Amino acid sequence: MPKNRAVLIDQIIKQTMRICAFSSLFFLFLIFLFILIEGLPLFYRVGVGNIIAGFKWAPTKGAFGIFPMIVSSFLVTIGALILGAPLGLACAVYLAEYAGKKKKLFLKPALELLAGIPSVVYGFLGVIYIVPLIRTYCGGSGFSLLAAAIVLGVMILPTVISISYDALMSVPRTYREGSLAMGATKWQTTYRVVIPAASSGILASFILGMGRAIGETMAVIMVAGNALRIPGSILDPLRTLTSNIALELAYASGDHRLGLFSTGVVLLIIIMILNYLANFVIRQKVIK
Amino acid sequence: MRLPPRFVNTLVALLLDLVALGTVGILVVIVCVIVVKGIAYIDLNFLFTYPEDMGRHGGVFPSLIGTIFLVALSICFATPLGLGTAIYLTEYTKETMMTKTIRFGVESLAGIPSILYGLFGFIFFVIKLKMGWSLISGALTLTIMILPTIIRTSEEAIKAVPRSLRIVSHSLGATLWETTLKVVLPCAAPGILTGIMLSIGRAVGETAAVIFTMGSSLRLPTSLFDSGRTLAVHFYILAREGISMEKAYATALVLVVSILAVNILAYYIMHKVIAKYS
């Protein structure tokens, strides 16, 4: 009976597809499980406060304080946002409201290509061009918060641009037509009507940009100088959570390695909070 | 003092024009610097000879092969899984709590930074499963990392296939799978290919997740359990340890040009598809 066989095959395929679909959840579970299994014991042994609020990182001597790294991670992220968010938003506004069809066809993929450049290349160019520039004109060694913020500012552009652009494009045409019909100029319409209407999506793009910046590793290691303290100025070197893991994982063992996984746990929690926030902000708009 | 609105309007239009051009300028400058500096140090010998003295002399042949093996393996693992997930989500179920949970899982995977993939791959594949620093550990880690890209782009591509095609196929007596395999997938193929291309670009440029799972041995990997060094990792080590700026530029050129080529091809395919459907 060929017909029955076809139905049977259909059933088998369906179950196979279902297993595929659950694999993503399974992998997510595995990642959480293993990072937590390795990272949590130290929190019990040393104490949550001594790790999260501790100032001293000397993992071979039993000191696992990562507070300066948490602060540093947020500082570079905020720095990247100060540089990247306005620039990214401006590009998104230009693409969505001002660019002609032909220009858009060329500009949009070109801006998305920025996301394709590997982070090691960004870091390398940062070391070759931005670090010496800072050393010459601002002083210090050049390996600094400023250098990391500039490099990350460029790296978050594609995220900010593409999500802001989608948000701007989802504002109904009628909003714009209503405003223009009242005699508002194009910029007044954009500034007073379109951007406020797209604000939740734009905010989400900034939050996801933050997630990108805080999770970036190789570029930051290369330009940030990796010093183990809270930077006193934007010209001071710093070490982020991600750099801490990548710098020491290759040779760490025992408690030292567990300490790096604890750093990973903190990073994982920060990332999950940011992702949740971005989702929450986007959903707000849908409910409205 | 208030500026006249029309004046502001013109000024802003001009400024935005400059900002957008300036931002594209960043990409142009990056590519130009790498190409101009790298082109002097690159030739066929560089691609096809072994490195000597930690990469100070010679070429990148083992890294080139290592990169190709690693990326090919992870694409082979991730494509069926990702495509299966996309087909299941679009063709086999309605929107339920379960599909929402699966989508949440995919989104979360996409948001996890690559260093955490490195950390996970290191403890799970390298240590717990005792695969060591190897091609297979690296490939499995990258598989999970590129899975969200493949799922999302495949889903978009499958959703874009007109409903009428499916209905006609069903009315001819085809089962769901026959319809999916012979009608939906061929139509969605270019979109799915775009997703695969973008994933290749991402995998080629990845460093943090690869260096802790595949290691950084300079030998040519000849089995799944050999360690190896991808071009991106090789470039990172050359640049960070200051081994050779010339070789670093040359390696960067190979990296950037191959990634851009793959990405541009992906956009080109996508553009063709959009033009066809609209």
Structural overview:
Chain A starts with a helix and ends with a helix. Chain A is 78% helix and 1% strand. In chain A, strands 1-2 form a two-stranded antiparallel ribbon. In chain A, a hairpin with a 4-residue loop joins strand 1 and strand 2. With 288 residues, chain A is mostly helical. In chain A, helix 6 packs antiparallel against helix 11 and helix 7 runs antiparallel to helix 10. Chain B has a single domain, classed as MetI-like fold, CATH 1.10.3720. Chain B has eleven helices and two strands. In chain B, strand 1 and strand 2 form a beta hairpin. The mean pLDDT of chain B is 92. The chains are: A mainly alpha (288), B mainly alpha (278). The interface between A and B is large, with 82 and 81 residues.
Descriptive tags:
heterodimer; A: 288 residues; mainly alpha; MetI-like fold; two-stranded antiparallel ribbon; 2 strands; 1% strand; globular; B: 278 residues; 11 helices
Topology at a glance:
The complex is a heterodimer of chains A (288) and B (278).
Chain A: H1 2-46, H2 48-52, E1 57-58, E2 63-64, H3 67-98, H4 101-113, H5 119-137, H6 145-155, H7 157-169, H8 173-181, H9 186-197, H10 199-215, H11 218-224, H12 241-248, H13 254-287
Antiparallel strand pairs in A: 1-2
Chain B: H1 5-39, H2 44-48, E1 51-52, E2 57-58, H3 61-92, H4 97-111, H5 114-128, H6 135-159, H7 163-171, H8 176-205, H9 208-211, H10 231-240, H11 245-277
Antiparallel strand pairs in B: 1-2
